[in-house]
Amino acid sequence: MNEEKQEETITHIKGSKVRQHIQKMYKVGMDSNLYGIWSENSLDRITGLTGAIEYSHDRTVYYLDEDPFGEPVSQDNIIKMQSEGR
User: Fold this and answer.
1) Is residue 76 part of a domain?
2) Which one of 14, 21, 53, 79 has the fewest beta carbons within 10 angstroms of its own beta carbon?
């Protein structure tokens, strides 16, 4: 019997809105029989590995619309946090 996996869309966690982002992941050969999984955002940090990178899979990253200090994220709060060095 072949059951399809149904994914539930997460929209809120503890009152905070959730945003999702799909990221491509790549298998990167680091050495003989040694591989790592890197996100598309991190590939620019890899040098000297020509031909050692291949697509692996997609992953979903979830972001909460709040900062780690409990303040809702708004443009004013972002500017405030940057000025405070957070």
Assistant:
1) yes
2) 14
